[in-house]
Amino acid sequence: MNIGKESLALLGGAPVFDKPIPVGQLYFPSWERYETAFRGIFERQYYTNNGPLLAELENKLQHFLGVKHAICVSNATFGLMMAVDALNLSGKVITPSFTFIASTQSLSWAGVEPVFCDVDPITHQIAIEQIDALIDDDVTGIMGVNLWGGACDPVALESFASSRNLKLYFDSAHAFGCKVGDTSIANFGSLEVFSFHATKVLSATEGGCICTNDDNIAARLRSIRPSYGDANSVNVMRVANARMSEAQAAIALMSLEDFPKNQQKNKLLFDIYEAQLKHIPGIKLVRPAGVTFSNYQYIVCELDESVFGLSRDSLIAVLKAENVNARRYFYPGSHRSIEYNHAKYNQNLPVTDYLCAACIQLPVGAMVDSHAVESICDIVSRAHQHAHALKTYFEKRE
Ligand code: T4K
Question: Do 247 and 266 fall within a single domain?
Answer without folding.
Answer: no
